[in-house]
Amino acid sequence: MNDPGSFFGVAIGGIVLLLFVIFILVAIFRAIRIVKQGYTGIVERFGKFHKVLEPGLNFLVPFIDREAYSIDMREQVRSFPPQPVITEDNLVVSIDTVVYFQVTEPRSATYEIANYLAAVEQLTTTTLRNVVGGMNLEAALTSRDTINSRLRGELDQATGKWGLRVSRVELKAIDPPVSIQDSMEKQMRAERDRRAAILTAEGSKQSQILEAEGLRQSEILRAEGEAKAQVLRAKGDAEAQILLAKGESQAIERVFEAIHAGDADNKLLAYQYLQTLPKLAEGDANKLWIIPSELTDALQQIGTGFFEGKAEVPYKRTRVERSDREEKSILDENFESDSVNDVEVPSIADTLRSSGIDPKDAGAEQTISSDTSLADETPGAGYEDAVQTVREEMPGRDPQAASEQVTGDAIPSGEEIDPQLPDSAAYPDTDQGGFNQQNPDQNR
């Protein structure tokens, strides 16, 4: 047991066993490979591509296979620094880009390109200059979608052999020169002001249109209401005029019927007409009278109504001869005044005096002058005696006719007229109204 040779042999055997155990442990460690999700591994055997390790647990041949590369299979985003680009109109703009790409073939990405990240960056810069260089500044500023799609297409085609797929390319910023930026800001400010003015004008236009429409509707409604009111007023006025006309018509008919039913004498109507004449001058507004040319004929007919009983009463009349010019002058002076002026009608007293009756006993007189209107007869105490005397002297005639004024041709004094004869017999040259037809000049 104390032999040194045996002790030495035991020690060597222990060392060998320990080395073997260590070797086994190292071989096991190198043979097992765990790949994370989203990654792949490139295995080389003796320096040559052998296989691609998938995510999970993988086994390698120890000391023969080795994992040379680990490739990230997820989509990657790379933001590149701003690149100066010259546009078609020789303006330099600074463009900042972002590229989204993904490794689809780990072997190509490992062995076809040395550094695919640097390659993508350089390719993006050159492609961007080619695309934007064919556009002017305005098109470059307003055509981002076009630039993005063209960049993505060209980059995807160029990186396909590298085992890469470019999914998106975005332009983060396009910065023109400072001078251009100032001009653009002014232009944008002017454009904003123009749009604001247009919007303000449109709003004012719409407001005015609505206001005018409302005013038009209100005017239409007001006009319709006024038209209806006028129609109603016109109907009311028409009905009032109709009722008034009917009332006046009925009043005239009743007066006419009363006149005919009462068998009114023409002398009474003529007397009432003369009573009405002075009323024409009443009122401050009556400054002008319009006298028809037929007035003399009307007065003559009125006188005829007064003088129908002239044949029964013997009288004398003094005729005053005047020329046509003098008569016209007298008529003009009378008609221009406010009432009947300077015309004196013989009173009942004169008529009774011409019949041989004392007017003081009768106590009645009538005077028409420019100062007074036609006064009513005022019978005195002896009026009934005078009437009785007329009845006795002229039987069969109305005594009232004897008291009226008589005008006509002068009758020679002392000539007696039969009271029973009609007017045509008493006056051969006149009609029944006392008008001389053969010698009209004597009717004045």
From TrEMBL:
It comes from the Bacteria. InterPro entries: Band7/mec-2_domain, Band_7, Band_7/SPFH_dom_sf, Band_7/stomatin-like_CS, Stomatin_HflK_fam. GO terms for cellular component: plasma membrane; side of membrane. GO terms for biological process: proteolysis. Residues 30-188 form the Band domain. It is a single-pass membrane protein. It is found in: Membrane. The chain crosses the membrane at residues 6-29. Residues 318-331 have a biased composition (Basic and acidic residues). This is Putative stomatin/prohibitin-family membrane protease subunit YbbK. SMART domains: PHB (SM00244). CDD domains: SPFH_paraslipin. Its main location: membrane. Residues 318-444 are annotated as: Disordered. Belongs to the band 7/mec-2 family. One of its GO terms (molecular function) is peptidase activity. Keywords: Hydrolase, Membrane, Protease, Transmembrane, Transmembrane helix. Pfam families: Band_7. Residues 366-375, 433-444 have a biased composition (Polar residues).
